[in-house]
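Table 4 source record.
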Amino acid sequence: MGVLSLAFAQTQEPLDLSMVHRIRAEALQNSKVMDHMFNLTDANGHRLTGSPGYKKAADWVVKQAQSYGLSNAHLEKWGPFGRGWDFTRFSAHLIEPTYAPLIGFPLAWSEGTKGPVRGEPVLAVLRTNEDLDKFKGKLKGKIVLADAARETPQLTTPLARRYSEEELDKLELAPEPGQLGFFTTRTNFAGPGGPGGPTRGNFADARQFRTKRAEFLKSEGVLAVVSTGTTADGGTVFSTSGGSEDPKRAVPPPMIVLTPEHYNRILRLLEKKIPVKLELEVEAKFYDDAQDSWNVIAEIPGGKRKDEIVMIGAHLDSWHGGTGATDNAAGSSVALEVLRVLKSLNVQMDRTIRMGLWSGEEQGLLGSKAYVKERFADPTKMELRPEHSKLAGYFNLDNGTGKIRGVYLQGNDMVRPIFAKWLEPFKDLGASRLSIRTTGGTDHLSFDAVGIPGFQFIQEPMEYSTRTHHSNMDVYDHISRADLMQASAIMASFVYNTAMRAEMLPRKPLPKPQPERRRGEGPPSGTPSGGTQ
């Protein structure tokens, strides 16, 4: 679309600037978004799907939504998910040759230690069947160190950063013809192999080997398995699960991840033949009856087009190393704030506004996929349900705490003049960019997969991939209050404009049916899909 035609199209798109002003004023001057953040993180803790913490947080959202006067606020079951898991105690200590506390946390869906255990560590990197044969009969009563030493280079660039204008200019350009897809990666991702396991190649083979390795470690009678997760330093630990929520898969022994500085010290001592003793304790519990999980739904009923829906969403679940602040209490807090802002204006909108906070995102967008499949279409068959034609659009926030700089158009150039017009009042807040590129790893993909306009906003990188994503530093202190307030104003305006627009948002042609992929056979949420960010 040329500059002149884009400008003409923008002039045809009506925009209620008085309402934009009211939305901005409420979101920026009377914000409650950090109250939401506090309750979801500090007051609640982590929100691993299938854990009591997730259910507690979901119940809080329902009560808070009701207190704001929102309608139909409820938990909506989907499933089966699998077994739940949680931990209530963790400690790790270097006992010999001298005492030191160790920084880390246990990996999800692995066993507890049944009280404190002391033992000698032994380096045993188990990546192949040959490795299992090599260590057979040699690990009983040992603490297995599953990784080689992890380099911790000196930092020469800041962990937190914002986009430069040059980077945003490049992001607005379409990829060169012939490139594989339009994808931009959103994050560094801890590969599916887990500690000491495969991280690339055939995911089905990796899954099979992880099961075999878990069975081997248990049969050998190891006390625990310790690893370093993915690249980190400065006391930051990135990691997620050591086992599986699938009740049919073997439960591994206690699996613990330590910060590389502490892990490397242990390896250096062993290398110098100095005796080492560790003490570890993990209290972990499985919830085998947690077959189902819950999404959180709340609405503002519409008026003359109340059967048509505009949706906003984020994932409520998190990993357990921190309190899931940037991933993704940030998006959940903004989504709830958007509905609060719009409800406070006491204006009857044409279409119904619906919030969906999803669970199971970290295991592969499971909650939003289940919701879309039940209501709109099964992507494996593309047989549309009546509600498919009633969803005007879906807007998602799930790239950390950074402010909104624009929108990924997800390959839908037809919305470019519409969104360009809607962003005009927010140029002074730094939001003006539109990228034809798609972006992966967030719940908007569940809607896009069945031909519904689904969008993720372009957000500042901040510390997302360098410090907080899936780490023990994903906590309230790394949230930018001003950025979440800005995001709330922009998203509330987008939702309002979509609800009041005479026509639904334009749609891309329906995608072809996609073959069903078993859980664990493909890249989990957040896996890079090509390109760079």
